[in-house]
Amino acid sequence: MQNTAQGSAIVHLENVGVTYGNGVQALESISLRINRGEFAVVLGSSGAGKSTLLRTINYLTPPTQGTITVDGLGDLSNPQVLRLHRQRTGMIFQQHQLIERYSALQNILTGRLAYHSFWRSLLPLPQADQRLALDCLQRVGLMDKALTPVNALSGGQKQRIGIARALVQQPQLMLADEPIASLDPTSAHRVMTLLRDICQTDGIAALLSLHQVDFAKEYCDRIIGLAHGRIIFDGPPSVLDHHNLDEIYTHQAMAQPHK
Ligand code: ADP
């Protein structure tokens, strides 16, 4: 099933495929529009290609086939387009990827580095950036941890710093790869609520990969089901039924030989 919503797309993938150097075909013929303001989740079993899809949208893993176009900028294979797209795209990772010995505030400020030249980024960042970082810290409810080294924070607090670091980029798109996989249920709900509310308030589109179907149904407005590197479901949670879930999690696409 294809999502027919025709909102204005921020990113448009056309026939995108990724084959890794070892010959594994992680994505195959993915055509997908990520629309302004939507909160979408990619579901799929382990190895389905969720992480590759998110990384491809930021060219951390460039596609080996097909094209990715960014609205108003052009083809992502153009280095200048990629630089601007990365500035406007926040990434959130399962293991936070924070610098543990840095304070919460210093970590958030690293989200501004893409806006400065290499040489400028060696100096303390401008006050406007520092004010913005403090504002983001406030929005994730951790103002009192500004000067605390990240290694003294809980998993949930670290992920909230990860959200603030993405938010300080003033993104139009957030890509979150398994953002709650390492969290207890209470922290996971807190992080999902925060992420959804921030994205709604700021009009940021989000694409998350999740393992938990119940979280996907509760928080998102679009579910993209992946199996063996192909999209096999794309629609709102209200139409996702047991049959779709069976397909997403037990799809026998492996029976079809990959080219
Ligand atoms: P998911 O996030 O759904 O678990 P991945 O995107 O991580 O799936 O992986 C999709 C497929 O690509 C898997 O078969 C995985 O083993 C393979 N894969 C992922 N990353 C690499 C890599 N860097 N090199 C080779 N194969 C990879």
Please tag this protein with its features.
alpha/beta; 8 helices; disordered C terminus; 2 domains; about 260 residues; binds adenosine-5'-diphosphate; Rossmann fold; globular; 4-stranded antiparallel β-sheet; 6-stranded mixed β-sheet
Q: How would you describe the overall organization of this protein?
A:
The protein contains 8 helices and 10 strands. The longest helix is centred in the C-terminal third of the chain and has 18 residues, at 185-202. The protein folds into 2 domains: 1-88 and 174-259, Rossmann fold (3-Layer(aba) Sandwich); 99-170, no CATH class. The radius of gyration is 18 Å and the shape is globular. With 259 residues, the protein is an alpha/beta fold. Strand 1 and strand 2 (25-35) form a beta hairpin. Strands 6-7-8-3-9-10 form a 6-stranded mixed β-sheet, with helices on both faces. Strands 2-1-4-5 form a 4-stranded antiparallel β-sheet, with helices on one face. Adenosine-5'-diphosphate (ADP) is lined by residues 20, 22, 24, 26, 44, 46-52. Adenosine-5'-diphosphate is lined by residues 20, 22, 24, 26, 44, 46-52.
